[in-house]
Input
Amino acid sequence: MPRPRSLTPDQLASAALTVLDRDGLAGLTMRAVATQLRMSTMGLYRYVTHRAELEALVVELVFGGVDPTPPAGPADWRDRIRIMVERVRTAVEAHPAVVPLSVSHRHTSVSLLRWSEAVLGILTEAGLDGRRRALALRGLLSYVIGAIQLEHLGALAGAGTRAIAGLPPDEFPHLTETARYARRIGPAEEFDGGLDILLRGLLDPPAQVDPSAPAPE
Amino acid sequence: MPRPRSLTPDQLASAALTVLDRDGLAGLTMRAVATQLRMSTMGLYRYVTHRAELEALVVELVFGGVDPTPPAGPADWRDRIRIMVERVRTAVEAHPAVVPLSVSHRHTSVSLLRWSEAVLGILTEAGLDGRRRALALRGLLSYVIGAIQLEHLGALAGAGTRAIAGLPPDEFPHLTETARYARRIGPAEEFDGGLDILLRGLLDPPAQVDPSAPAPE
DNA sequence: CTCGTAGGCGTACGGCGTACTCCTACGAAT
DNA sequence: ATTCGTAGGAGTACGCCGTACGCCTACGAG
Output
């Protein structure tokens, strides 16, 4: 065996993350990351075959900061879920420019798999299983992904809501009125409020039990 | 006033949508759209100042296909919401490549504003108002955005789930077991299942009423 | 009739991802 | 100590992209 590699994937990823934090998503180019690492542009391709692979490394680095161990503290399983979700949210929000990347590379992250495993564990303790548990995890993921993007595209207490408040009230009576409330809702409150709705829905027994639901194989 | 324009924004948008459907998001370039319209590349810039503006036109065209009138049929308000949400889902799914664009240009679409207005109307009839109504709409939007993306990045009955089913069961016991159920869940079922959770949560009275909630101004 | 704007074409620039080539430096196996 | 395979690194080049800019033509309202 000859000469070992002199850069770990982690070093690569954190160089890219530095660029991303500094210059935003549009600034994340192979050339910029190479410069950050003080190597030639093409040198990057020794470690990575595509730009997409570099992006995946960054996403994994960010999700790697999420503690995947289920919290032992709260008795209420909904509080434990809240904590798990909050961990993802804070990890992503420390680096807003990774939001779009985290959506498209979510499925390649083993850290997020471990997170999902823990969440499923909590859901299992809560008495969910089979089909309901699968739908619950998927629903949670959908909400988290959507809510994080919404927050970064324009939180409720932001310019978009202000624009809506200025719409013609005769054409948009509910929207304009709602916008007045929405301006007072901070990002965390907004996120938790939606999560609460979802958790309340999880708690309830299913509206109707489908006897034809498939059994595990 | 001299000479009127010879192309409507709608013609522009549908040319772009044709390209998008045929060549995917990466194929949606100014050059390709111009060729589709049989004009020179730079001719496009007579109608549009950026590529982003063209993208917004496409998104508005797609959302323009969503019927914004609240459905009169079902007595249960949740069924009416389901119909409204389903309309968005089907409109977007007819053009899968528009999914990423619809997320980033969502806020510029007046069609989506009208849709939101109608949804707020239904929520109002359901007895929600003020802060709760704002959070409900935002929660619904978050879920819809996240779920649509999840579906197009890899539905439950897809390759991702199959990969998860093949993970080491000792490290991911819940995930591997859940994946076996998840393979049987079709996209529509998955989407509706998550929506049901949310709607169930909306129905319930709030877990605790916050007396310090801000009043409307 | 005329003049301002739309229509249209072509060229050019800078930046992107990345394929390819060439040379050097190391370090484990011999 | 020598050898040899791979990592490191630089540089060049290609084909895309968005788009700034200039020039000429055609039309239609005043």
Chain B touches chain A through 63 residues (CB under 8 Å). The radius of gyration of chain B is 21 Å.
